[in-house]
Amino acid sequence: MLSVLIIGTGGIARVHAEAYRNMEKSVRIRGIVDTDLARAEKFARTYELTDTPGFSLYSDYREALAKGSFDLVSICTPPPFHCSMSIDSLNAGAHVLIEKPMALSLEECDRILEAAQKTGRRVSVMAQNRYDTSKARIHRLISEGHCGRVLYAQAYSAWWRGTAYYNTWHGSWETEGGGCALNLAIHQIDLLLWLAGSVGEVTAFTANVNHSSAEVEDLALGIVRFNSGAAAGGLGEILGSTVHHGEGQQLLFQTERAGLAFPFQIKATRSRAGGFPEDDPETVAELTALCNSFPPLAVEWFEGQIRDFVSLIETGAASPFLSDGNSARAAIEVVMALYKSAATQRSVSLPLSLDDPFYTRAGLLEHALHYNRRVLSNLRGNAAEGVGSNAYP
After folding, report:
1. pLDDT (tens digit, 9 = 90+) per residue, 190-205?
2. Cβ of 5: how many Cβ atoms within 10 Å?
3. 40 neighbors 9 (Cβ within 8 angstroms)
4. What pLDDT, on a 0 to 100 scale, did the predictor assign at position 12?
């Protein structure tokens, strides 16, 4: 039975705890860490952990790693702590499940991956959106070649957040590491890469248009060129936003044979005389029937990924849905290329080199200083309208 430590007791930690509680034949939560012990104790009582043999509460994760013997650590803290907590947990002999984003720079991601390789432990980064039956079926349609090449792909992460959202650790380059592109659109970017392929070039714009309490962007737009996978040679579009009334997340893949979308939808078109379009219901029926023939996922969303990670630890067998450190890093690299493109007003080729300023957190923060000088000046100048503008040097 795997012994689990959960670091952090915020809202996302509840999802981890509930999943582990549903897996009590193979895992047991034996430690909770929170700098506020009263909050940790309340969390433990909520999930009836206090009477678990060997269970302990800790105010310092390093004390937990030193005193306890944990097989698996769930890191459910704000992003600035992900790197150090992951490396310390790996060095203590534990496998690590990290909440998104993996870390706040590519350098930090690589330090985590290096520690995992050195210790022989596993790393997974939460990408629960992969664990949805409709997405799993579309993944098979694309990866098995049933639709031909992906010609164009679109990933929209459209949210709405009020000013109060940015009065916590959100909204600061130092503590959040970025805005809607890094901490909300990262899920859609992960799905884009998982379903379509890797990105070789990014051209982007970002802005803070409606949140004077935030340093970071609340709107990000990027155009990408894919260089491998089903979409090799094709183009894609990324939107990250916290200004969209009504919200709405969307993925769209235009393939040679059909358009595939989430929320789940399949459309197909064929040519009439002269090349003009008409609906192709036969192809839609064929692909829909094929999708429906693929078995549904036994367990979806967060619990699906956590179960897959536990299975990987126990058996060594990797699931095709599981987000590991390398795939999580790839999504971070797209975001950093997006930030670099917006900052320099140029297209950016991937991969980013080790000496690129946007490889390190220090380089990103230096960029943020320039961003803040311009964006905050614009916001103050437009206080009556509440509007900022694109803010890069």
Report:
1. 999 999 999 999 999 9
2. 25
3. yes
4. 94
The Cα–Cα gap between 257 and 236 comes to 17
Lowest-confidence segment of 134-138, 216-220, 261-265 by average pLDDT: 261-265
Report how far residue 243's alpha carbon sits from residue 217's, in angstroms, rounded to the nearest whole number: 11
Q: Percent of the chain at pLDDT above 90?
A: 76
Q: Which domains does the chain have, with CATH numbers?
A: 2-125 (3.40.50.720), 149-255+328-381 (3.30.360.10)
Of residues 166 and 89, the one with the higher pLDDT is 89
**pLDDT per position as a tens digit, 7-21:** 999 889 999 999 999
Q: Give pLDDT, residue 392.
A: 32
